[in-house]
Design a protein that fits this description.
Protein name: Putative tRNA (cytidine(34)-2'-O)-methyltransferase
Radius of gyration: 15 Å
Largest sheet: 6 strands, parallel
GO molecular function: methyltransferase activity
Strand order of the largest sheet: 3-2-1-5-4-6
Strand content: 15-25%
Structural class: alpha/beta
Shape: globular
Keywords: Cytoplasm, Methyltransferase, S-adenosyl-L-methionine, Transferase, tRNA processing
Subcellular location: Cytoplasm
InterPro entries: Alpha/beta_knot_MTases, SpoU_MeTrfase, TrmL, tRNA_m1G_MTases_N
Number of helices: 5
Distance between the termini: 14 Å
Amino acid sequence: MNMNILLYQPEIPQNTGNIARTCALTETNLHLIKPLGFSLDEKHLKRAGLDYWELVNVSVYDSFDQFMEKNPEAKLYILTTKATKFYHQIEYDQEAFLMFGKETAGIPPEIHEAHPDNRFRIPMRNHEKARSLNLSNAVNIVLYEALRQHEFQGLI
């Protein structure tokens, strides 16, 4: 398996650090699209990822277009509150790219418009003050469903 997490312009270092730790423990690749809301050597980022950073395959891109140029065959699964299909209702490819948007604004409309059939959501309460789950929690929920579908191949 070659699962991938794709974060579009993440802003909070602790979230990305937690996601990196999950990636290290699941042998999942981490892809980051700039601009980032932090430096990759920031102490909060490293503290959240602890000493797992050396176990993570991290790729950084200047833009979504650059990501697509370098990964033209990427099978995107876009997680968004704007979707109608639920994350557990789909079959994940073994080389899936699970894409999550930035904490304050999500994924831009042009990406939504370019991939209307590849958008999924996590079920949650519909309330104006409860916009979405924490990014690192959302990543864990969806990643573990994708891994479960492939019987946690390679994990103990």
